[in-house]
Amino acid sequence: MRLLLTSFGHDRIRDFVRGTVAYIPDATRLFASHPDAAPFIDVERDMLREHGLQIRELRLETSTPAMANRVLSEVDGVYVAGGETFDLLWLLRTTGIDEVLVKHVRAGLPYIGTSAGSVVAGPSIAPVSLLDSPEVAPDLGDYTGLQLCEHVIIPHAGGTIPQFPIEIFADTVRKYGADYPLVLLKDGQALLVDDLGTHLI
């Protein structure tokens, strides 16, 4: 199993997977009407293209498990974009695509996550409740992640993004650090999980 869990962007994407990736954009769907959202979404797609990757969109809210299974069977990797973590997990679970995705990744499909896409790969998304909004998915209830890795990624931990001041990360560690194996990532950092182990890069 191979995972590259980023905060936002990493040079290793280029070497981690080549060819075509299934691009799951749904974590940004609640940002669609926000004036600052479009540049963020475009930057993420452009970044993948700059790394030489082709993009095949896999939108959860309009896909069935069978459709997702077909797409994931035909690509070289999967990229789960950033956005609202709680809404992303709710969509994965209610569509049933969570089980399909886990099956393919455990069978060897390389998984790249950014921000929310990295968080959902872990054991629980509860520790990002100070960064994201649990209230956007009031019916989610269970915050168990995809359990593809044993760590909970806390993205954007550099304190350089105005809506995520450094104090939020200190509060997150105080509230959740004793119960969860947190990994705080700055933008440009990643957690690499492969056959050799788990590495901060």
Give a short synopsis of this structure:
This protein is about 30% helix and about 20% strand.
Give a written overview of the molecule.
Keywords: Hydrolase, Protease, Serine protease. The protein is of the alpha/beta class. The chain has one domain: Rossmann fold, CATH 3.40.50.880. The protein contains 7 helices and 9 strands; from the N terminus they run βαβαβαβααβαβαβββ. Helix 3 runs parallel beside helix 5. The protein starts with a strand and ends with a strand.
Architecture (CATH level 2) name = 3-Layer(aba) Sandwich
CATH topology: Rossmann fold
What is the helix/strand order?
EHEHEHEHHEHEHEEE
In total, how many beta strands? 9
Number of helices: 7
Can you give the mean pLDDT? Answer: 95
How many angstroms does the end-to-end distance come to? 17 Å
Task: Give the count of structural domains.
Answer: 1
Helix content: 25-40%
Computed CA radius of gyration, to the nearest angstrom: 15 Å
Residue windows where pLDDT falls under 50 for at least 5 positions = none
Q: Approximately what portion of the residues adopt beta-strand conformation?
A: 15-25%
CATH class (first level) name: Alpha Beta
CATH superfamily: Class I glutamine amidotransferase (GATase) domain
Overall geometry? globular
Largest sheet: 7 strands, mixed
Structural class: alpha/beta
Strand order of the largest sheet: 3-2-4-5-1-8-9
Structure characteristics:
Rossmann fold; 9 strands; 201 residues; 32% helix; 7 helices; alpha/beta
Please render the helix and strand layout as text:
Layout: E1 3-6, H1 13-16, E2 20-24, H2 37-50, E3 54-57, H3 65-74, E4 77-80, H4 85-95, H5 97-106, E5 111-114, H6 116-119, E6 152-154, H7 166-176, E7 182-184, E8 190-194, E9 197-200
Parallel strand pairs: 1-5, 2-3, 2-4, 4-5, 6-7
Antiparallel strand pairs: 1-8, 8-9
Helix pairs in contact: 3-5
